[in-house]
């Protein structure tokens, strides 16, 4: 593939689409409803080594070096005293264009997951699944509540941070929280190549900050020196 012959946005979109397909399986939409039925949502068990990246530095727009660990507010300690379990009786509301024949299926599915959580409130997987099902019905506030609690239960897993980054950026339109969660995803999943594509896209498209996108991709190459995908992404961002 000759990079100079392709449009920069096309390169990033194609590579990002391929890479994310295997990682971000929690994001699905209402297209699952087809031919008057719901396809079952596939889940993937990931066997991935998680390595932190404390003390790694990147540059801000003024050239000042900052540490990734400084981006996340470390002064706020998450404990059971300052985070409450989300309301499991949250109302199930469907948008007008949601297929009527699928509504009862979703109600039954959500009620099953909710009962599982009531039986085992500390189940990270169930809270993640609850957020997924809430997302199918476009209840983005419900998704946030479920996934933030899942992050409290398992704060070292990159996937929940990455999912929340997407949720805040694309659906809740909160760039501050989106950045915080994308950074957290990279901190706990530094070898997950798709995360660098996600954060580069975020900085370029949402923050209009290509320089920061380049710095994050350089960080990814430093940690993953054999990734040709990241090297191609870096070159496309420099064009």
Biggest sheet character: 2 strands, antiparallel
Q: What share of residues are in beta strands?
A: under 5%
Taken in chain order, the helices and strands follow as: HEEEEHHHHHHHHH
State the strand order across the main sheet.
1-2
Number of helices: 10
Q: How does the helix and strand content classify structurally? A: mainly alpha
Beta strand count: 4
Gross geometry: elongated
Overall pLDDT confidence:
77
Helix content: 40-55%
- What distance lies between the first and last C-alpha atoms, to the nearest angstrom? 16 Å
Question: Which structural traits does this protein have?
Answer:
239 residues, two-stranded antiparallel ribbon, 10 helices, 4% strand, elongated, disordered N terminus
Please describe what this structure looks like.
Helix content is 55%, strand content 4%. The protein has 239 residues and is mostly helical. It has a two-stranded antiparallel sheet. Strands 3-4 form a two-stranded antiparallel ribbon. Helix 3 (100-119) packs antiparallel against helix 4 (124-136) and helix 6 (158-171) runs antiparallel to helix 7 (175-188). The radius of gyration is 19 Å and the shape is elongated.
